[in-house]
């Protein structure tokens, strides 16, 4: 089976969040199922610099007014198709934001081009390789099923995965004439969304099947609280909606062979782990205390519950804890954590930005990772935490609730607990959870069992890849 995966970011080439990790890991996970997955992504400067030798397979004289080429490349086991369109993608800044942190003003055109290129590949623009199925990720590629419907590739099944429904790819109606779609597509049955254009909404209407990244999130997005105005669309597609929890690349995230940590270890050799804690303390300027070292690896936004966490830092410090924060986002929240670091020198440290190697050291060195998200489609940092014996403390929502077993009295006694769950997302609720964390931390044997149980959790792609393979096969069988 040949599958075209279409994503705006793919680890290890370009990453702003968990979407890249999923798009980077899924091809290898599906290979044992007889699925050859090629990944189409934009030719950002960072991508072009890393991929090395390429082969030009074809191109477009004009793609939304600009020349573009389709390049084949291989990188760290990934079979890539790179959309090389310098006028659209060769620019400073990140995939979505300019150097000032503002959206690129032509994002609608840039990712419509990615989607249209995918549709053309499905239609047969590359004679030597045509996909049996197209798998799109999030709004940036969600127009591909729409273009396929209107461009001679409606017979090719499509899967659209929602990684975060809050990002809908919403643009003014004035952009529609530039999208190279028939006027009939600007309708309730198409891309129209409350008078605007929504790439994600169009994809949800057109895709053969819809997946999201955890069973709980699949239920949550059917409600007004989490559906972001698309719950009605999803309710009408409920027979085609599947919640499949993400896995992680257990080769990349392997504490026994991680090049980014100081002292490799496994569940049976947890005594080697403290050397990583020492290195982490040194990196963040933290002192040794008799309490747990907490970490955060996150976007610093209200969605991630970072405002709630900022409100309980004093409680963490008062109970002997320390806190290391890696992330960026809302300037006010960045300032709040910087202020906390200044008020509590040696007890709170922050690195603003993203640093992949440092995130590995944080999982290997911290005692617990805090994920107080107001909503979390799947979440990956808690899975990394399980893998590394960094006990997750998470909100009871979405994929967090699906992947963590709460350390209540019964679960601890049965030796099945893997972390701490709390709800609602409030300072009071988080404080109650932290009190439970401090209590079990002071019982080293129980804490070690909690770590070991988490490290034995199956966080790989094995089960999820089996479900995706079955979904693909079912769609192809329907013809």
Automatic annotation (TrEMBL):
UniProt keyword list: Glycogen biosynthesis, Glycosyltransferase, Transferase
Keyword Transmembrane helix attached: no
Coiled-coil annotated residue ranges, if any: none
Binding residue positions for ADP-alpha-D-glucose: 15
CDD domains reported for this sequence: GT5_Glycogen_synthase_DULL1-like
Ranges of residues in domain Glycosyl transferase family: 288-445
One GO CC annotation: cytosol
GO molecular function, one term: alpha-1,4-glucan glucosyltransferase (UDP-glucose donor) activity
Pathway in which the depicted protein is active: Glycan biosynthesis; glycogen biosynthesis
Reactions catalysed according to its record: [(1->4)-alpha-D-glucosyl](n) + ADP-alpha-D-glucose = [(1->4)-alpha-D-glucosyl](n+1) + ADP + H(+)
Enzyme class: transferase
Entry superkingdom: Bacteria
Stored InterPro entries: Glyco_trans_1, GS/SS, Starch_synth_cat_dom
GO biological process: glycogen biosynthetic process
The UniProt record lists the keyword Glycosyltransferase: yes
EC number: 2.4.1.21
Domain Starch synthase catalytic, first and last residues per copy: 2-235
Known function: Synthesizes alpha-1,4-glucan chains using ADP-glucose.
Family: Belongs to the glycosyltransferase 1 family. Bacterial/plant glycogen synthase subfamily.
HAMAP family (UniProt xref): Glycogen_synth
Annotated NCBIfam families: glgA (TIGR02095), PRK00654.1-2 (NF001899)
Protein's name according to its UniProt entry: Glycogen synthase
Source species: Ferranicluibacter rubi
UniProt gene name: glgA
